[in-house]
Amino acid sequence: MPKDIIMAEVQAMDTTSLLQVWFSSAMPTGAFAWSHGLEQAIADEDVVDAASLGAWVIGVVSRGSGRNDALLMSAAFQAEQANDRVRVAEIDSLARALVAGRERLEEGLSQGRAFAQAAAPWVAVEDSSRQMLPITVGVLCARAGLPLEQSLIAAIQAFASNLVWIGARLVPVGQQQAMQVIASLMPVVAAAAHDTSSGRLDELGSATPRADIASMRHEHLHSRVCMS
Fold this sequence. Notes:
It is built from 11 helices and no strands. With 228 residues, the protein is mainly α. The protein has one domain: Urease accessory protein UreF (Orthogonal Bundle).
């Protein structure tokens, strides 16, 4: 089916349905293989139970790389809406420069490629398969005509939930406790989406040094399950 016909169908499609598909655990991005440094934090006993797991994820989402990624996603979304491919490329370069170490870079690029490939039945991916995950997501959400803030909520929630379930496996934390952590994260996710929807890159910054250091130290973790 021609891409223009697919795009027309996407525009008419219920927004909630597409967001549920793109940001569900069934979307084959390989997110389950990347812990974003959480595995190292667990090995260091910075995360030992549901409470410390929730605190760790809240920090990453509201003050760390999760917030930065949301700002980058918003900026990429807006650049795509303006059909400014040069700006998109600049934002992608900035996203690469901001990562804390080699594994975070591989995490962003690997999931970016996977997300673009998985979204290909709905939108034209073009060069999006060579971009960092938040850039790919921002560009393709704009291309699909999805609303920015709802897309941000879905993307941040998917990121946070993935970290919680990784923690549930490795700490370990029971399923019911994991769900309680995810429930407690919902207002944090909504606030982060609202705060980053401007896409203002002068607001980029991280205040989670332990998470960033854990991500870099993970490269040397002797026995590990995750790739970051």
